Predict the 3D structure of the following.
Amino acid sequence: MDPFDAIAMSRPARGEAGRTGDWRNARPVIDASACVAAKQARVTCQICWAHCPDACIEQGAPPSIDLEYCKGCGICAEECPAGAIAMVPEAEHGVCEAAEVEER
Amino acid sequence: MTVRILTGNESAAWGARLARVQVVAAYPITPQSPVVETISAWVQAGELPAEFIAVESEHSAMSVCIGASTAGARTFTATSSNGLAYMTEQIWWAAGARLPIVMCVANRSLAAPWNVLNDQQDSMSVRDAGWIQLHCRDNQEILDTVVQAYRIAERLNLPVMVCYDGFLLSHTAMPVEVPTPEAVDAFLPPRPAPLQVIDPADPRNIGPVVIADRRRDAGGVLRGGYMELRAAHHEALLSALDVVAETADEWERSTGRSTGGLVVQHRLDDAEVVLVAAGSLVTQLTLVADGLRDRGVAVGVLGIRCYRPFPVEALRERLSGVRAALVFDKALSYGYAGPIAADLRAALYGVDGAPAVYGAVCGLGGREVTPEALTDAALSALADARAGVRERAVAWVGRLSEEVSR
Ligand code: SF4
Ligand code: SF4
């Protein structure tokens, strides 16, 4: 038997824990005007990148976040020394707006 | 081969030594402690080239075993009673992670109230965790079963619990044949590669969250969800029925000693009533059956060596045509029945010609189980069976109800 079918095991790869973006109920939004890296226009700080448990922040000035896998834990917002990351409820982005729900 | 006078605990330690265990992690608890004391003395003296890891609890003992076994080491531990209860979370983990750990359980009652003496409530309380559970009748079987357990475990990637009665076996000395290391090496090869090879060139996440749904892995292969892994585990456990039996046969071929495969039987021919139990009680029941046979009563004994997986087919076959089976449980599923009795009833349900199954609870907290009480219980089962009784309340053997209430 393939050991991968006998025990919980995976090869580290993008999305191996599943589409963790589905878990999110608040999304991190970076305010570039407050981000240290963006203000310096250099890849500095990157503290959010270092702390993200899902490795879904890409380095940059400002860094960018892969919302396909960001699970919305808020650690990056908590750790950002400039307070540049806000956790905005998903409902405000419209993703949770159920389209037309038919009357039954 | 040498014959030594060994306690059950020393026999367990010898089994582990002959199996060339590489990592032993344990926390002391009565009546198991001498197992790991013996092993640690050997390690200290350089007689056993193993890593002995003293930990601060049974939960940690099993955690260390899980880590060591994941890395590919042959791992051993032993515990009893509340120690087993304390490691329960990790017992489930070891099974679900399919690690071939072998653990001896010197069976002891569970608190409250505190009591250090024998019954089988401890291992029964984790019968559903997905381990193979083997029960031993005497000290020879403890040594033999520990060695066999590694072969079974490593063939199936399943952990094995080797259970034996606390004090009745753990602290009772008897002659035990200790095979030579060469004989055991010929029977038990080194552990094959584990399911989870730890290799920096091919890194793995071991034990990640597994969601409910099936999904494609990074390579695009469709992988099971939680249910598929659990079903695979269940099927592996069921396949252990063949492996346990085959391993016992091979052991018999290599040592000349029969330890029983799934069940052990004694004087089943034409038996009207069959006495069923696990552990040292089986040895005692064979004497009871012999006594009754001398009096012309057709009584046989069926000992359950392999309790998980439950040997349904073997039991159906051995009990076909018998009037009644009387199961002696040293444990109770409180609010229902003795666990072996309940399992046997379920195994025989709807089978043509199956015997009535009566349950009796005995020996809780070390209460003495006398041959007289077992004989009386067998005779009353026989009377009920002849009277056509199918259902009967759990009988308490050796319970001093009148004296206590007076
Ligand atoms: S730290 Fe949490 S919230 Fe921030 S990007 Fe990573 S997963 Fe998303
Ligand atoms: S931690 Fe905050 S300031 Fe630092 S790079 Fe990330 S967003 Fe910018």
Notes: The radius of gyration of chain B is 22 Å.
